[in-house]
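Lab manual, section 2.4: Encoding a predicted structure.

Procedure: take the sequence of the chain (95 residues), apply the prediction step described in section 2.3, and record the output as structure tokens. A sample record is shown.
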Amino acid sequence: MSETSVRQHTTAAFYGQAVASFAVALVATGVGIYRLNADGWVRAFLSIAVLYLVTSAFGLAKVVRDRQEAGQLVSRVDQARVEKLLAGHDPFEKL
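Recorded output:
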């Protein structure tokens, strides 16, 4: 029986690039809000909105990942059932 990995591994470079990109975007947004020519209340509101957006993006990414992993697991279970059925079938057996 052939084994296929359910998990897909990313390279360290891709992971580093994703983390760096997130950090740069968050810092740039923070600096932009800080240097905004507006009252403190407006900057505070925008900061809270950015934090809410970031946390909801993490939540959405987790839900998408969980649904994808669940689909891969179901596919793997179905594949195992088919392989078991085929392994037990003898085409030369008399009916």
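Check your result against the sample. Helices lie at 12-34, 40-87.
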